[in-house]
Every structure is written in structure tokens, then in C-alpha cells.
Specification:
three-stranded antiparallel sheet; 14 helices; 6 strands; about 5% strand; elongated
Amino acid sequence: MAFFKCFKKGTVTILEDESDNWDEGTTLLVGAPLLASEVSEAFELLSDRIHNGAVNWSSALPTAGESTFTEYYWEWLEDVVSRSTQVLKSTGLYNVVFASLFSYDRHAPVIRAFCEYWCPATNTLHTSQGEMSISLWDLHEIGGLPITGRFYDEVIPTTESLNRKDHKGMSYIPHICRYLFLEYHNILQDSKGKSRVRMTAWIKYWSRGPFKYKKPSRKTIRNKSQKPKEDSDPSGIIPIALKCTEEEERVFEDLGIADEDMEKSYLAAFLAYWLRKFVFPKDDVTLIIPGVFKVASRMAHDVSFGLAVPVLASIYKGLNDICSADDPGICTTVLPFHYVYGWLGEYFDTTFYIIF
């Protein structure tokens, strides 16, 4: 028979006889079990800390990174989708790009309760029926994010990478990437000494079609059983692409974009904006980040990226920052909350969301 004794804190010693000394046994280091049923104190939730008086909500939960209304974005999205449907479908982006065509209203008490019962140690939501979590499959099925594809990496390429060509004279990084950097440079030159490019300036340059959608009115009350009336949200019906106007063509003329590169350049410029707005909001969510230009250009050239993995990581990190904060009400973490809203709507029927 085996006997177990603790001669030193944090260890367990295996003995053949209960009277054996420490040096006659085998000593192993021990760790906290992962199952909450064995040691519940290892998984203290934000709700526990609130009930114990250790922390408190000083203000409403900040939700930096959630998808918000931006003038001309919906118009630009409809135009891009109508012109680049095939590329978006072949790269697995159509559904998740389409999902950003709508407004996402949050129910503050539900989100707050969600955070209070989210466990940072296990990345799970503790419910009366057990633990559950946001998974990669959820982000794919509910949010439309592709799971498979190349590794997503936000990085500004080196000069060597941007200029490198293969034996056929083709650039390793699509040459349309140059147009994104050029326009970034042009906007900075015209912005009177500013050091970074605002997303509003980016969309103002690229989206020159007619204005159609005004900001939806804020829906402060949500009814579980009745879908609220839509305000000025898009219908979801993508209009047929029209011939570019002279003003719209001037975008490409100013950058010296050849006719054969217009569609892919236009799509890449949109994806650079969309990646920051709807997929990977970080830090100052009002800025365009040149680190997305390489990925956006490759996406426009039919290259697929596994977006669900880094998105899930950013959600886990953001939720853990909130749940571990001394004052969650002033936590400045940024994460794409709209995916959390969609997940709650799918599994708990808390409100109505239009999401794929």
C-alpha cells in the first residue's frame, strides 16, 4: 500500500510504510487542480470579489472596441461587397464582412453580469448549469470568422520585403500594398503636422459615393420577446455595383493606380479599415494602423487568414483584464465586444443581433 505525507509545503511524499522517513520516499511538487469542484477558491470570480467588498463598479463598463456607427462606412461596405463578392467568398470573409453592415446595441446589465461570472483562470463563464465558453467554432459559426488560413500578423514590412521580387519579376508582397502606404503618406502630408492617420480621414478619401445612412437612434430598452424596429440600418440587400463616377475614379487617378488594379486596391483599402474597426480594435481605435496593409493586400489577392484564433485570444485577454481589474468600471482594455454580444444572443437569447 502507498502512503502519502507532506514533509514540506507544496510537496507530497510517497512512502511504502507510514513510518518511513522523508528520505526513504519519493517527493513530488504539487499544484492546484483545474477542476473548480475540487478547489473552488482557486477560481474566484469578479462577483465573489464584489460580494466580499474587495472591488466595486465605480462606473458603467467601458466597451472600447465594440462596433459603432461611422458615417459612410455602410455605404462603402455595400459598394465593396457588390464589386468584390467572389474574392470575399473565396477567402472566407464574406459573412464576417457582411456582419459589420449592422448596428450592435448592448444591454449593459447583461454584459456586466457576464463579466462578473467570467473566470479568468479557465476562460469560462460560470452558470447555474455549469461552465461554458466562447470557442473558435462559435466565432466561425456565429461571427463568420475563418478558422483556417495563414497566420495573421500585423507588421510593417521591411524595405527589402516591399521591394523583393521572385524570378518572374512578381512582388512577394502584392504591389497594391504600395498604394495603401502612399495614401497613408498623402493624408499625413495634408493633415498639418499630425503624426498618425485617423480612420475618418481614411474613409473620407476612399468612400466618395452618395450618403445614405444616418446614425441609428439609441435603443435603451430591449425586449426579449419582441424584435425592436429598425431605424436607418441597411436592409442587408447588396445593391448592384454602378459605374464609378468621376469623383470616385479620381481616387485611383491621384494614386496612379492602373485600371487592372483598381478593384483589388479598393478592396484592400476597405479591408485595412475593416480589420481595425470590426476584427482587431486595439489601443486608440480611431487610428488606421499601417501594420494591417500587408495582410489586407494579400486578402485582396485571394489569400485566406485564420482570423478566429487571434480574435478569440484578444477576447480572452480583454475579458480577463476586466475581471481581474481593481476597478472594472475604469478598465481601459480594448476588445471586439460585438462578438461577445452575438455569442450571448445565440446562447442566452438576451437580445436581438444580426450576425453570421
